[in-house]
Amino acid sequence: AAPKGTVLYAVTITGYGRIPLYLGPGTTRLTMYDSTIKGRSDSVALYLDAESGINIIRNNTFDITSASREIIALDGSANNQLLANAIKKAPNGGIYLYRNCGEGGTVRHQSPQNNFIAGNTINNTGGYGIWLGSRNGERLYCRDDAGFLFGSSKDDGDFADNNTVRDNTFTGSARTIRNDGNNSIDHDSKK
């Protein structure tokens, strides 16, 4: 029942509080390019939910204000490409990869691995521009999926591993990249 093969080209999405673009569980092969997300969000601007993947987010502008969160969240989303996007303001962080272990009592099978994050410009004035493994089991609901021998029930870690982060530019005053995963690569990103 998850959508696949969706293309969003040259669209403008205006947020008025709720998450402006939410890719639900299992969304695959979505391409969004040459588009703008603006306005405000009480959460994030773009959310890629559990078991989603192989999505391409390219050459977009995120000119949105977030009340308390990062601008782009990859929650158990894998094999995505985030390329040449401009995040105009990120007072609480830019792009965060994690896995909401046990949220709603649901076992999260997939971890945020094998993502390619390159050529983005992030104006981060708070938090990290990019954070691989931003939660690592530090949520009260992580044990809500206990009792199974797989996924987040077996281990609450984010496992934000094997990601490639390269050639990103950070223009704000805050920290740039934090890597709490394994075997992830950071090449030539600059402040």
Can you tell me about this structure?
The protein is mainly beta and 191 residues long. It is 2% helix and 39% strand. The chain contains 1 helix and 19 strands. It has one helix spanning 151-154; strands at 7-9, 12-17, 21-23, 31-33, 36-41, 46-48, 56-58, 61-66, 72-75, 81-83, 86-90, 95-98, 116-118, 121-124, 128-132, 164-166, 169-170, 175-179, 185-187. The strands form 3 sheets. Strands 1-4-7-10-13-16-19 form a 7-stranded parallel β-sheet, with no helix packed on it. Strands 2-5-8-11-14-17 form a 6-stranded parallel β-sheet, with no helix packed on it. A 6-stranded parallel β-sheet has the order 3-6-9-12-15-18, with no helix packed on it. The protein starts with 6 loop residues before the first strand and ends with a strand. 46% of the residues are buried.
Low-confidence parts, pLDDT < 50 over ≥5 residues? none
N-to-C span: 42 Å
Strand order across the biggest sheet? 1-4-7-10-13-16-19
| Average pLDDT reading | 92
Radius of gyration: 15 Å
Q: Helicity range of the residues?
A: under 10%
Q: DSSP helix count?
A: 1
Order of helices and strands: EEEEEEEEEEEEEEEHEEEE
Task: Quote the beta fraction.
Answer: 35-45%
State the secondary-structure class: mainly beta
Give the strand tally: 19
Q: Can you tell me the overall shape?
A: globular
Sketch the major β-sheet.
Answer: 7 strands, parallel
Structural features:
single chain, 191 residues, mainly beta, 7-stranded parallel beta sheet, 6-stranded parallel beta sheet, 1 helix, 19 strands, 2% helix, globular
